[in-house]
Amino acid sequence: MGKIKTVYEDCDILVVGGGMAGTGATFEARYWGRDLKIVCVEKANIDRSGAVAQGLYAINCYMGMQWGENQPEDHVRYARNDLMGLVREDLGYDMARHVDSTVHMFDEWGLPMMRNEKTGRYLREGKWQIMIHGESYKPIVAEAAKKSADKIYNRIMITHLLMDESKENRVGGAVGFNMRTGNYHVFRAKAVIVAAGGASHIFKPRAVGEGMGRTWYAPWSNGSAYALPIAVGAKMTQMENRIVLTRFKDGYGPVGAYFLHLKTYTRNGKGENYEKKWYEQTKKLVGEYIDHHPVPTCLRNHAFIEEVKAGGGPIHMVTTEAFQDPHLEVIGWENFLGMTIGQAVVWASQNIDPKYEDPELTTSEPYVMGSHATCSGAWVSGPEDLSPPEYFWGYNRMMTIEGLFGAGDTVGGSAHKFSSGSFTEGRLAAKAAVKYIQDLGDKKIEVNDEQCENFKEIIYKPLENYKVGRNEITAGTVSPSYILPIQGLQRLQKIMDEYCGGITVNYMTNANLLKKGLGLLDMLHEDLEHVGAEDYHQLMRAWELKHRALTSQCVTEHTLFREETRWPGYYYRGDHMKVDDKNWHCLTLSRRDPKTGKFTMEKAPLYHIVDEKKNEAS
Ligand SMILES: Cc1cc2nc3c(=O)[nH]c(=O)nc-3n(C[C@H](O)[C@H](O)[C@H](O)COP(=O)(O)OP(=O)(O)OC[C@H]3O[C@@H](n4cnc5c(N)ncnc54)[C@H](O)[C@@H]3O)c2cc1C
After folding, report:
1. What percent of the chain has pLDDT over 90?
2. Secondary structure letter of residue 163 according to DSSP
3. Which of 65, 161, 370, 605 is most buried, most CB within 10 Å of its CB?
């Protein structure tokens, strides 16, 4: 350990993760905190990091208030409907009322927006989506963050949060390591904003073997956003609400632009519209939710899954009609070339030309995230003017740890934020963090050397495990003394898949399976003390795995706690197959005791702040 250099950085605001929410937070922190020291730490390089690294073809959350297209209330109704009634409406409204200003800044900063030639407005793809030429989306927002921060640290993975020693339950910064130099980095900060994205690769993926690493959500989204707060005892919410996505098969290409802009549609192997076949069956499970418009994402998945189980596959996206129009054909390809190149490559490699052949769709493995049609994440305070007392404790987007804020995928309860809403939530969190620091006044944060040295030992232990254990084997990768990160990852994915409702069990689980899964996760945690890393890159893999494992434990505890099937098509509790509004029209909360590692669960009330409208979420 002696030769590892320690680098200290003291700052006011530390932003962990420089993706959409992190760049938004860094930018806004400078606006309100002109004289504050603002530092952003990113695991990759913020120019091309996070879920938007490859670019996007649409901004999925734009109200269009200037043209009277939608109001924030409409978006709350939409998100509530899609999440089967359960969202934090205060958070959703707060994001929606500010998101347009974010998009207008993107426009000013040079993001090429498509325009409706007749009206001059942004070109709509759907009710909430506007179309962009978004290959350079990420470098553009990264530039705003780079100009705002005192310093951006790339290639540093944050592994732990530091706690203030002078006050219980107050954050004091974060630590991590540089995966190129190996240096140990200590960031002491008055406020920390966690914006570290969602969690992919916690469930066994469909793409294994030669396709390993391919996922829908970014493969580098490793659940740090959840593991960091969970480890220090922050409350989490709705962690059971993982998301499954209907996507183009093998390349995970998104279907949004195809449905909305190209007006393509799906049918089963026999050429039938299969969705309506499952209406009565779904109604028995969820009641009137199936009659909502638009049909909630999970229920559309449900029809897909049932149809495939009943032998109606493969399910196809009918592209052969739309692609006869040369303009739509170009859009269809560009959509992937600017966002998910892998899908275009898969089609090329399988001789699929969507002009002449309808490509297959599939349902993905589950992901944990807070910004899409799902809302897992940290339990945060809402804004003062909107939130009921149970949802408000002083500073917008602050977790149940003082000084610890969240944004984007990190934050639970506020679905359908997407790229623009995540950036917006970063801005909201940063504004509140500045206020928090101003209110702190002269009060100092105390983080002693002992705390930092302890973490140093813990962080680099996988290197030591490998160095010592490697001597026991002469060849191969199987050692009696350590497991490699990839071995641990595959074990985690198998546990989550088989016991917590992954693809190989058709998303089905029950209390007995979940309890068994928790036992296996406990054993995995014990073995992760013996994970071995041969270099700094593998050290990152080791810590990604540990964060994924902790996130998975929380997901499993939540899934066990909620005794109903609230989102058929995302997962099923076989022992409680129906939506149970009487007992479970509520939010779920968990807290892991940092000393004992035990989770406690509770219900939180659900407040409907925005009224129903005659035509909900139309
Ligand atoms: C294939 C795909 C298509 C999508 N399509 C659209 C679309 O069309 N329109 C739309 O609006 N949205 C779309 N989205 C959603 C959008 O990208 C996300 O909602 C948004 O990026 C979430 O923002 P975030 O900041 O929470 O996470 P991210 O943008 O993923 O940022 C998280 C950042 O944290 C970093 N990080 C993680 N762990 C650590 C750590 N321990 N230490 C330091 N840094 C860390 C990561 O490297 C990353 O840079 C799509 C996403 C994907 C994957």
Report:
1. 92
2. E
3. 370
Give me 502's structure tokens: 């992954």
- Mean of pLDDT values over 601-616: 84
Check whether 617 has a pLDDT greater than 50.
no
Asked if residue 253 has its Cβ within 6 Å of ligand 1, the reply is no
Residues 6+ positions from 416 with CB-CB distance below 8 Å: 60, 61, 75, 78, 79, 82, 92, 128, 371, 372, 373
Model pLDDT for residues 464-473, shown as the tens digit of each residue: 999 999 999 9
Burial class (CB within 10 angstroms; exposed 0-12, middle 13-18, buried 19+) of 380 = buried
Helix (H, G, I), strand (E, B) or coil at 608: coil
SS3 143: helix
Rounded CA-CA distance 405/277 in Å is: 45
Token duo for residue 615 = 């035509």
Please indicate whether residue 373, judged by its CB atom, sits closer than 6 Å to ligand 1.
no
111 CA distance to ligand 1 middle (Å):
18
Give the HSE-up count for residue 259: Cα atoms under 13 Å, Cβ half-sphere.
14
The tokens for 376 are 């897992």
Query: Cα–Cα distance between 500 and 517 in angstroms, integer?
Result: 7
For the chain, state the CA radius of gyration.
23
Other CB atoms within a 10 A radius of the CB of residue 288 amount to 9
CA atoms within 13 A on the CB side of 349: 10
Number of C-beta neighbours around residue 326 at 10 A: 9
Placement of tokens 């109903």 in the chain: 564
> How far is the centre of ligand 1, averaged over its atoms, from the C-alpha of 254 (Å)?
15
**What's the predicted TM-score (pTM) here?**
0.97
Spatial separation of the C-alpha atoms in residues 318 and 359, rounded to whole Å = 7
* pLDDT tens figures, 340-390: 888 999 999 999 999 999 999 999 999 999 999 999 999 999 999 999 999
Residue 102 Cα, ligand 1 centroid: separation in angstroms? 16
pLDDT digits (tens, 9 = 90+) for 94-146: 999 999 999 999 999 999 999 999 999 999 989 999 999 999 999 999 999 99
Q: Using alpha carbons, select from 302, 202, 204, 245 the residue that is nearest to residue 565.
A: 302
